[in-house]
Fold this sequence. Notes:
Elements: H1 2-15, E1 22-24, H2 29-36, H3 42-56, E2 68-73, H4 79-82, E3 90-96, E4 99-104, H5 106-118, E5 122-125, H6 141-148, E6 159-161, H7 173-183, E7 188-189, H8 190-199, H9 213-220
Parallel strand pairs: 1-6, 3-7
Antiparallel strand pairs: 2-4, 2-5, 3-4
Helix pairs in contact: 1-2, 3-6, 6-7
Amino acid sequence: AIGAFSAGQYKILNQAGFNPDYTAGHSFGELTALWAAGVFDESEYLMLSKARGEAMAAPADPGFDAGSMLAVIGELDNLASDIADYENIVMANINSHQQIVLAGPKNEIGSVKDHLNQLKYRAIQLPVSAAFHTPLVAHAQKPFATVLDQVKFKKPKIAVYSNGTGEKHSTQTQTIKKKLKDHILQPVNFKDEITNIYNDGGYLFVEFGPQNILCKLVSNI
C-alpha cells in the first residue's frame, strides 16, 4: 500500500514537470527509489513490493519470535555504551542526529526500554510486526532474493543512494541486485544517506508517502 501510494504521488508530480537529480528511500523505500530511477518498471516494482511483504511475514511456528523495535530519541552519543550489555539488541535504523531505532527479541526490547527510560532517554516501542533489518528476519532474505533474480535490472537514469550503505548505488545492475538481496538484513543508515546527498549537491528534499516522517528526519540531519 505504501509503495503504490508513493509511486502514485511521484507520477503525479512527474506529470507536472518534477524531475529529481537523486532518489533515496528509507527501508522499504529502497525499492521505490530504484523504481523512480528506472532500474525496473512499474509492474516489476509492484511485484517486488508484494514479494518483500510476503517474505517478511513471520513463519507459521507459533513459538517464533520475530522481534520488535524501539525508537530512542534524544542525545545519543552514549547510546552504544548504554546498551552494551544487551547482546541481541541491534541499532537497526540510524535515522537522524537525535533518533536511532533499536531492534531485537521482544523480551529484550522490553528490558532495554525500561533501562533507557531510567537513563532519561525517550524510548518508544514501535507498532511493527518484526525486528526488521536484523537477523530475526533472516527467513525473508532467500525468498526475496529468489524473486529479485526474476527481474532484469536496468542501469539507473539518475543517481540512487542506498539506505543500507548510505552511499550512492553503483551503475552496474548486478552490483545493485546483489546489494538489494542483502538489504533486508542490513541496518538502515538514513543519516549518512541524506548527508551524502547533501554533500553531493542535493538541497531540496521532497518526500513521497502517506506521512511526513522522513521530512522531519531530514530537517534534523
